[in-house]
Write the structure tokens for this entry.
Amino acid sequence: MVAKEMTERQMEYLEKAREAAVAFAERLGHAPKSYVETFGCQMNARDSEKLRGILLSAGFTDTEEESEADLVLYNTCTVRDNADQHVYGRLGRLGGNRKNHPERIVGLCGCLMQEPHAVEKIKKSYPFVNLVFGTHNLYAFPELLFRALTEPKRVFAIETKTTVLPESLPVARKHGFKSGVNIMYGCDNFCTYCIVPYVRGREVSREPEDILAEIEHLAADGVKEIMLLGQNVNSYGKGLALPATFAGLLRRVCRVEGIERVRFMTSHPKDLSDDLIIAMAEEEKLCPHLHLPVQSGSDRLLKKMNRHYDRAHYLGLVEKIRAAVPAISLTTDIIVGFPGETEEDFGDTLSLIREVGFDSAFTFIYSKRTGTPAAGYPDQVPDEVAHARFDRLLEAVKAGAEERCGRFAGQEMDILVEEENRQQGYVTGRTPHNIVVHLPGSKEDIGQIVRARLTDPRGFYYFAERVMNSKCTVDSKSIAFCHSEEQRDEESRQL
Ligand code: SF4
């Protein structure tokens, strides 16, 4: 069956799932409620929006209270062992409460479900889990939901490669004003510590026309900010019938009317092209933020990690991107405790952090993932050594990030307001550089881009004051201040 037919078949199953949900509601005595929880990355968060879209379309209502849900679905992650343990812990709690919910459907999906040992464990130790499906089965969720609603036996569906992309099905976005858009699935890089290529499969790019059509549709629906998603967006286009590059795609996305900000995640340093750097400098809608995972500052470890670049290459990229976009915010991922890491290797990582001056970094202790090459390396770093290095790493990242974040003090910026703040009379949003800003406002501001002056740096975030009728025309990609240093000092004294 070709992909189009399989998608059409799912639309038919959605109709059947609706009928089955009506029967489910009769058994329950109320309209069924569903609770979807996302573990892990932005790819999973986007998948969960699709899962919720299908559930709502089938007649479920959303609840944020897991305890009152008639269907609980965990969209799992398996990049680190603690992500696995977290899911098992939560299942244990659900199992303890199942007397109160004899009809409840408990489902598991996502990356952990691509691991055969995890599926075996669910089969044996968690008999109340009645729906399990993998990352490649997301497109078939209407059919699987129908089966879970109508069949007495447990439903397991785990494919090992992507046959149909999970597109063209209903989506329930978390935010009305911003949205992730998958441009590709899977990864071909096989970094030696990473489980993703095994659980998400090989790289598959979507056709540019399909991506653009989705973004045009989102823009018509009020979306202002787009985040293009992929495990390695810089290699977008491989395998498509007509040649396409990520830089070319970005430029076309920036032309979509109504879209005001474009972001992307995640970039691999080995595939970051000059064309992309030029596009970042030239395209106004492209936000001046680049997340560029370095993982280690040691050439020896980068080689063992199979990253295909060295420290000098990474630093060269940083130089180029800062020359093109001076105010860019640079963030990264760093692993400590990779097998064989010596004090000298770790010192190289610390010195790289100081040399680059990251705006922020996601820091991780290496987690052994069964099936990856690094899991078999003999020289695993003892836990206490890895933890001690992790603490030192955090200090280095924090010190550098506070200094970097403070460079925008006094500058006016456009803030896309995302939510109300817990502090009454305040809202929270982000600058184009992805820095969190708290400013006076109300819920009517959510989804609006408002002008504000960043008055009060607090390490990783700012407090700001709103600016009406600003005459300042600051280019967010170059470093420019609307006020003199003296004015700024005076203002900060008044705070
Ligand atoms: S690029 Fe490396 S770290 Fe990133 S998903 Fe692929 S294998 Fe994992």
User: Anything to note?
Assistant: Confidence is low (pLDDT under 50) at residues 480-495. The domain at 178-403 is CATH 3.80.30.20 (pyruvate-formate lyase- activating enzyme). The chain has three domains: 3-157, 178-403, 409-494. The longest strand covers residues 449-458.
